[in-house]
Amino acid sequence: MTDMTPRRLGAPLVVGALAALGTLATYHVFVRTISGQWLDTAAMLGTDVEHPRLAQILTRVLNGTTLAGLVLVCVVVVAVGVVRRRPGLAVAAAVLVLGANGTTQFLKDVLTRPPIDRLEFANSLPSGHTTAAASVAFAVVLVLPEAVRATAALCGAGYTAAIAIATVWSQWHRPSDAVAAMLVVLGWGALVILGVRLTSLDRTAATGRPSPLGVLPLALTGLVTAPAAALGFLAAKASEPMTTTPEPSRIAVASGAAGIAAVVAATFLVWLWLATDGERGQDVRRKVASARSAAVETGSIRST
């Protein structure tokens, strides 16, 4: 079995580069242009509606995301990697969480937000809550066995989307903040996968495929929400008066939520593919090595 090194190394490199470019493009369009900034702010301001039950659910989701809880999950993630005798994956998961959250805080501090919408808001891109939720979910998917990764990806995507939408609903963030956060996490995910693969260049690799149980629901979500978000933003832009300050827009709110769901689904799909590909190769290599060892041992016994 041959080692497909160019493809295995090229995939995370391409994904990482696209994630970085996507983060910059999101910042430019939704922070540095008048149309993007107004639509983004209109989506955030348009969440000021009375839905007590929904508000209660989203508040609980946000309140459940604490630093102590995230640290506990990270400890569990590292422990799972060690128990599975995959210390490399445990280290990669820790680097992913720390790197993604550190990058988000750095970008939030250095990026500026010009007051094009005439509102004196500080820069809030990327979203720290979304980064924390997504990075921990990515780490969980990475260290778990392949048989349960699809389920973990679905649960992680649902939790991350709920956190991201809740931050917009609470008017803590705009939709673009959550989108940028997802791209930051995906970029770091690609980076750690590249590191994992670079440490096993001398071994035989195999191509794995994510389980349909994880792929189909995420793909369907993306296929439905992506066009809905695009059409909704076009409609919101056509109806936005663009006078002095952005007006709250229900269309922009729905479009922003759909856009967040689409990006979350897409990033988890890509992550599931990257993580499963690398894991399958390691499993096959281990089985081949075990079979060879057993064959050698059997041969030596017979020769005596």
UniProtKB/TrEMBL annotation:
InterPro entries: PAP2/HPO, PAP2/HPO_sf. The keyword Transcription does not apply. Keywords: Membrane, Transmembrane, Transmembrane helix. Residues 89-193 form the Phosphatidic acid phosphatase type 2/haloperoxidase domain. CDD domains: PAP2_like. Pfam families: PAP2. The chain crosses the membrane at residues 61-82, 89-107, 127-144, 151-172, 178-201, 213-236, 256-276. This is Phosphatidic acid phosphatase type 2/haloperoxidase domain-containing protein.
